[in-house]
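lol ok so funny story. i was supposed to be doing the assay writeup but got distracted and ended up predicting the structure for this chain instead. priorities right. anyway since i did it might as well share w the group, maybe its usefull for someone
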Amino acid sequence: MPAEMCPFWNSEVERTMHSLSWWKELWSKESGVELVDCREMASCVQAWQEWLTADHPVVAHDIEMMRAEGGKYFNMIQLIAKVR
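and the output, tada:
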């Protein structure tokens, strides 16, 4: 983990924030599911910008986190799968 992200790392981040390759590998192990598409979403920047203007108590913390992140680590993943 990059040093600049240490102050923001908690159990929720550890549980939910994973790379595109991590998600692909996880879903490819499931025998009853065919992974149709797994990709980074182009709307990541817009979604974060909208969230950071929300009236929510977590936003102040997330503003600092995103400032430290500097666009290097977070993305949004889209998974499309079908049941076999």
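Residues 3-83 form one domain. The beta strands are 33-40, 77-83.
back to the writeup now i swear
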